[in-house]
Write a sequence for this structure.
């Protein structure tokens, strides 16, 4: 049941990401902005040809390949139920939906549509998929640091369990 809820939530996040990107593309000319939360955040239409902070700009297919490998690895972890704790499962589904959202843009458009722009700090413009990936990565780190050992780690023993005693 937890996996079904995660899959539905991931599909909803992916749909929201694609809808917001479409709305921005239709309603806000490239480079233009409009207030969202005045003094805090605005909407700005940006085409990002790279990854975070426009790193690897112009390396579209490399970014598609790397993101695809990550998405496939996360999907494998979910399908094989390697991660079973709810926090780890949520992290995986967030990373999966965000990764897919940006892959769709890169393959379909050649760039990622970004729109959220903080006004109170200098920070790269980002999108719903980026939010999902970052939240998923933070949850994954919390899961790994505090829950993985207790709930999902396969017990390897200490190497002495089957040793004969003399």
């Amino acid at each position: 049941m937890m996996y079904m809820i995660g899959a539905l939530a991931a599909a909803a996040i992916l749909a929201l990401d694609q809808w917001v990107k479409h709305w921005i593309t239709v309603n806000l000319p490239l480079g233009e902005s409009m207030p969202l939360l005045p003094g805090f955040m605005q909407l700005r239409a940006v085409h990002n040809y790279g990854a975070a902070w426009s790193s690897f700009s112009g390396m579209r297919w490399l970014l598609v390949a790397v993101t695809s490998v990550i998405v496939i690895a996360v999907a494998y972890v979910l399908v094989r139920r390697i991660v079973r704790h709810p926090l780890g499962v949520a992290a995986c589904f967030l990373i999966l939906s965000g990764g897919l959202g940006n892959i769709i843009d890169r393959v379909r458009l050649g760039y990622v549509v970004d729109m959220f722009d903080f006004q109170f700090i200098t920070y790269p413009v980002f999108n719903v998929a980026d939010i999902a990936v970052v939240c998923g990565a933070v949850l994954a780190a919390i899961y790994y640091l505090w829950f993985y050992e207790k709930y999902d780690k396969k017990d390897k023993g200490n190497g002495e369990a089957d040793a004969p005693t003399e």
